[in-house]
Specification:
Strand content: 5-15%
Number of helices: 27
Shape: elongated
Number of strands: 8
């Protein structure tokens, strides 16, 4: 063996191998830079790498088979063993190795230490990203549900990573079907990067194409096509999210990143059913059509049947059933189904979410929501406090604290938590509208500043318009608020919501007769009816409307009104007893600022 190594060295095979590897690496770097500059297709770099790999054994073979002699190049077997070597061969190879090493070190040093000469955003430091809705390029055009659900899951996966800032789904989905002027969209969403893509399903085959674009120069930073069968759909979703997070150079280690972008189930049938539910939930929010809620519930029920340990599907079920046991929810749908039955569905979903939670933070959140309808408010505050201790950069915990402190009348603490929620990283499951909704009741100036920020987006969500209108009226900006009335009505099918916006505006403008006429023309449900009555200044009627809820089985519903400073909890003995038993002493109610005076 030693003789073989000595023969390799004698024939300069080792020198040739080292020189080839270093020179090949240098060539690859130069071609990579040129490909980026000219937006060359990925296959060029791939082909070069293949050629360089194929060339290595050829170079080694030639070094073994031929030798440099003073008379020139000869076949090795024709050179006598005692023939003198040409000293130039070794010197040339040594110089080549040294020169390429110097160039490589210089290039790496320049890349590592040189400033950005153009001032353009660098990938590693500018991480805000928006995920645009993926296009459906399936032959029948019948897989929009898969494209929407896949986009949502990729967005959620990226949002779960600690150091990525992801634009909300509401903002980015507003560009569904729009002409994709990427720099303009990025400026509107205030992000540095855009992820766009498409899906194509035909038979059992699936193709997902994704590309990451830097907004500053409309340059493609990463692009890849994933091909596989339907059975590969979960792996493809996770791979896309992992690749994007890596391209944006997150601080998370690979194992933790893989956990964060995981789909939450290995059952393809359960996952695709879940995607159908996500897509329908998105459409329900877009249309503001609460009648779709039971169709969404049916789909998520099927997902957890297919995989009982699918925590995310259980959480979505809990969300849907929560809206059906809380009349203050915009999705509440009166039906013949008993409240106790709806509550049982909610309890089952939230307990399953706790049991199968994928992380400590999601378990805490599920436990906090379970305590919500038991009216264990102080327990909820303690759990929310643990959430912000565990992940202080997340919005979810601060948003919960803002809401909970509002319900118990700790308005200064609610304001502080709300400001931290607003400054924290946006994430799925939290809403700017909800933060504004609570903030305008404790700090009008801060709420108006939030409204200003919301309307930097050219396509604010209907919920954001609705809550912004309330904040502006409370701040006395009646004229500015008037411009939002038609905008809200145009963007939603929320009939009663549209009417309450009109009534509020009429009261704020002193058009009391118009406000009462609008109310008389509709048959509002109990929640919006209470809002109408309070806005019209008919406080006695509003108080009596809710009195039947002050019962053991429905007192948690009544407690939902504690987010309103105009709600007087002392009017309801059981509710007040439940609050005071936890040491809660809410301040007395105060009238709505923009109510009718007549």
């Amino acid at each position: 063996m030693r003789g073989f190594i000595e023969e390799l060295s004698h024939r300069n095979v080792i020198r040739v191998g080292v020189a080839y590897v270093i020179a090949g690496w240098l060539i690859a770097q130069i071609v990579d830079l040129a490909a980026d500059a000219f937006n060359a297709p990925d296959w060029i770099m791939q082909m070069l790498i293949v050629l360089l790999l194929v060339g290595l054994p050829i170079a080694l073979f030639l070094a073994w088979a031929y030798e440099m002699t003073p008379e020139g190049v000869k076949k090795a077997h024709e050179v006598p063993a005692d023939a003198p070597k040409d000293p130039r061969a070794g010197r040339v190879l040594n110089r080549m190795i040294m020169a390429t090493l110097i160039i490589a070190v210089a290039g790496l040093s320049w890349e590592r230490f040189s400033p950005n000469p153009t001032g353009a955003p660098q990938l590693v430091t500018d991480k805000p990203i928006a995920v645009l809705p993926f296009d459906d390029f399936s032959p029948g055009g019948d897989h929009a549900w898969f494209a929407a659900g896949l986009t949502e899951e990729i967005l959620h996966s990226l949002a779960r990573t600690a150091d990525l800032q992801v634009a909300s789904r509401t903002s980015s989905f507003a560009y569904r079907g729009a002409g994709k002027d990427i720099p303009a969209i990025a400026r509107a969403l205030d992000v540095a990067h855009i992820l766009e893509g498409s899906v194509r399903r035909a038979g059992d085959r699936l193709r997902v194409t994704a590309q990451l674009i830097r907004a500053s120069d409309d340059k493609h930073l990463w692009s890849e096509t994933f091909d596989g069968s339907i059975e590969d759909s979960i792996a493809i979703q996770e791979e896309v999210a992992f690749a994007i997070a890596n391209a944006l150079q997150t601080a998370m280690n690979p194992e933790e990143l893989a956990r964060m972008v995981a789909a939450g189930t290995r059952s393809v049938a359960a996952w695709e059913t879940y995607l159908r539910g996500i897509a329908l939930d998105i459409e329900m929010g877009r249309q503001m059509d609460a009648t779709m809620v039971f169709d969404v519930i049916t789909i998520f029920d099927r997902a957890v049947e297919l995989d009982p340990g699918f925590a995310d599907a259980h959480l979505m079920l809990a969300d849907m059933w929560e809206s059906q046991i809380n009349p203050t929810s915009i999705l509440y749908t009166p039906s013949d189904q008993p409240l106790a039955e709806r509550r049982a569905h909610y309890d089952a979903a939230i307990q399953a979410a706790i049991k199968y939670a994928r992380s400590e933070s999601t378990r805490l959140e599920a436990e906090m929501r379970a305590a919500d309808f038991d009216l264990r408010i102080m327990d909820q505050i303690a759990l929310a406090g643990k959430m912000v201790e565990l992940e202080p950069e997340r919005r979810q915990g601060w948003a919960w604290l803002q809401y909970l402190y509002m319900t118990i009348g700790e308005y200064d603490k609610s304001r502080e938590a709300g400001l931290k929620a607003w400054a924290s990283k946006p994430e799925p499951g939290t809403s700017q509208a909800a933060i504004v909704q609570t903030m305008y009741r404790v700090d009008l100036a801060a709420a108006v500043a939030m409204v200003d920020e919301i309307f930097k987006d050219p396509n604010p969500a209907p919920r954001e318009i609705y809550q912004s209108h309330r904040a502006l009226l409370a701040a006395g900006e009646t004229v500015r608020a008037a411009g939002l009335v038609d905008a809200y009505i145009r963007q939603t099918d929320d009939f009663e919501g549209g009417k309450i916006v009109q009534v509020r505006q009429a009261c704020a403008e002193g058009r009391d007769a118009d406000a009462h006429e609008l109310f008389a023309a509709i048959d509002a449900n109990s929640n919006t009816r209470w809002l109408f009555l309070k806005t019209l200044g008919r406080d006695d009627e509003a108080r009596e409307l809710l009195r039947p809820l002050d019962m053991p089985e429905t007192v948690f519903v009544l407690a939902g009104y504690t987010t309103y400073r105009s709600f007087e909890a002392r009017d309801y003995p059981l509710l007040w007893k439940t609050l005071t038993a936890q040491g809660i002493d809410r301040p007395p109610a105060r009238p709505m600022v923009y109510r009718c005076k007549g």
